[in-house]
């Protein structure tokens, strides 16, 4: 026995991981042309199975694909201010280890005109990283003048049976990353400029992400003008995934292999990786764990629009909750032993 769990709970979870891949998910994310995809096929082959897919050719008609240069966006937006997240390293909303403690680090949040945002984004080596990543229905709420240059994905809306609850615009550079997490939404993620690299794990694999309860803290500027982490008052804890799939140094990679053996285990199927390019849309099913990094290449910045649809709290959601609970139990027992 490990604590109160049978000793083979870990083996059973490994089997679940392998079986989910063998039966349906596979080891790659398929690409399907929008011309072959009706709402019914999309629902039958992907939504009902909670299975990711990249759809090509679905947004070729969006004027945004051609028009959204930095100059054009600046001109359309004028003096309107947008929400911007700022960190020293580009890893907002992620686990940061400091003086022997683990913090869940929220970014400093600012409002600034788009012109100032783009100027800072283009400035190299400022020692800080900014990312327009507000998830408050930001396309209509903050970028209203650009709204008409994208269109709803009507076939997806039909498959989900509801209009999107939020439509968010994301603008950032190569240094911004989004740490592993899951959302209680069905997500249609459309890339307009640059590339997004998604690392994905299904809900069954929660135990491979080593969630730990971290103290919530936020970056704030101190008297010398530097960003530093300030724990929230009153103090609160948040369980968050501690695995970083791109450790910044060889040393940190070795440390991660020791701390997170089931993430890197060569006997388990590796996380799925998919690169989503301009004009492509990723269907990211609800409750899938995702880590996101970006590659601007010649574009200077990466721009994407995502649509969040309400998810069904069905039996798949119940299985996912069980997987989360087993993961928490397994790791709390590993610490205790
Ligand atoms: O693009 C990103 O940086 C993160 C996207 C994301 O996490 C989401 O759409 O849920």
Could you spell the SSE succession in H and E letters? HEHEHHEEEEEHEHHEEEEEEEHHEEEEH
Radius of gyration using CA atoms only: 20 Å
Counting helices, strands and paired strands, the structural category is alpha+beta
Would you state the CATH class?
Answer: Mainly Beta
The largest sheet, given as strand count, sense and whether it forms a barrel, is: 9 strands, mixed
What features would you describe in this structure?
This protein is α+β, with helices and mostly antiparallel strands. The chain has one domain (9-336): Jelly Rolls, CATH 2.60.120.10. The protein is built from 10 helices and 19 strands. The chain has helices at residues 9-25, 39-47, 64-67, 70-77, 114-122, 138-142, 154-160, 250-259, 261-264, 315-336, and strands at 30-33, 53-56, 81-87, 91-92, 94-98, 101-106, 108-113, 129-132, 166-172, 177-181, 185-193, 195-201, 211-221, 227-231, 237-241, 272-276, 280-284, 289-295, 302-310. Helix 2 (39-47) crosses helix 7. It is globular and about 60 Å long. 2-oxoglutaric acid binds next to strand 11, strand 18 and strand 19.
